[in-house]
Amino acid sequence: MPEFRPSGYIRPAAQGVPSREARAQLQLKRLEKINVRQQEELGRERVPTSVAAARYATEAWLARDADDWLLIDEGASERVKWDLPSQNGSLYKIQVSWPLQWTSREGHHDVPVFYAVDGNAMFLTASEACWRRGSAPHFSGGGLVVAIGYPLDNHFLFSARRNYDLTPPSATSAEGYGGADGLLDFIDGTLKPFIASTVLRNSTVGRQALYGHSFGGLFALYTLFTRPDLLDCVVASSPSVYWDDFVILSHEKHFRREAGTAPDGKRPRLMMFYGSYEQAPPQWPGEDDEDYKRRKQGAEERAMVDNANAMHERLKACERLCSVTLKGYPDEDHGTVIACSLSRAVTTFFEEWHGPKPLA
Q1: Whole-number Å distance between alpha carbons of 210 and 247
Q2: Is the entire prediction scored with pTM above 0.85?
Q3: How many domains are contained in the chain?
Q4: Is Hydrolase among this UniProt entry's keywords (predicted)?
């Protein structure tokens, strides 16, 4: 795969941070690109429609990151980010972190990689959970956290683009939904090769996992059921199984009925999580009785707990999976369970990976 490198690019130092002079040059190039973009009247969220515009998007992604590098002292980085274009020109903000013990991203073998969608909201939580494990008595070396997010124009962490990217296609998909295959193509065809060739240059990639929450959990299940060979582990936190009249269940059914299985070492794992308050929420202090009644009814209709338990029962004997685990967290809601599921997922994936035998 060709190296992602804009014109005039200066190779970063071994520890992943360019020299001060190189960062300054990249910042100047970023400003030049912005000027060109303004002159061409190419809107920030507009998809490039010409070869020239697509080439611009490809070359601009790293230069746009120069201002972040300018804020990092040389040798002090344990994370970095890029704006990486998909095949249709849409930009994804890719944030990457690695163990604090590393002095370089080069020279490592079989590095585990943990991908997370909704990356703007998940990156720091996942990274800090991994960094804390570095002080644990059984720390096994950790790995890479790769967050897949979006360039944002406001302070809201969840981009509206997620509605399209994270939902499966169906005959009844509303406008602006059903684009999960496009994001999967980006992960498989662009992001994974980029991580292997550029982020982990002169290192090798080991096992790989994907984490998603809510719509992201739905996306994780869709990934497992339609592209089971893409990853070694899929983590579905509070998956929106109910979405679009339970369309994901048709993909699950096909997955379970598919003939043939891969060897134990090749079969993916599935981890599922939920919070008890997602289906049985308490009334908030000061919440109006009618508002609470409507919110409680909505939670009961979505049936997050029941749907997760039912899917676990159907899949736990599936020969196409190495293992299926389900954990519910009492007294956690749809938002607070994120930290619980992320911490458990990265700990299991990085620290407790024992081969084909299902984890207890």
Answers
A1: 21
A2: no
A3: 2
A4: yes
